[in-house]
Design brief:
With about 80 residues, this protein is mainly beta. It contains no helices and 6 strands.
Length: about 80
């Protein structure tokens, strides 16, 4: 698993909101080794706790295949209040 930090932006691997979580989220807090990540929806606000295993550095696997589930990192928000 890659390093998850506050202010990172993630989008769903499939593109589009899931039944439980928004399409794009911003990490509010994460303790290394924790099982969950606290996020906010980028477009619609709201706070969510999502399993850390859902978060990936890229939208593809190490074998180069597209990921079907989870979130991949798309950027960071500098200066965004956490």
């Amino acid at each position: 698993m890659h390093r998850i930090e506050a202010r990172q932006i993630y989008s769903t691997c499939r593109g589009g909101a899931t039944s439980h979580y928004p399409e794009t989220v911003v990490v509010r807090s994460y303790e290394p080794g924790a099982r969950t990540v606290e996020v906010s929806g980028l477009d619609h606000g709201g706070r969510y706790t999502i399993p850390a295993s859902y978060f990936h550095a890229t939208a593809t696997t190490t074998a180069g295949k597209p990921r079907l589930t989870g979130y991949y990192m798309t950027g960071t928000l500098d200066g965004w209040p956490v």
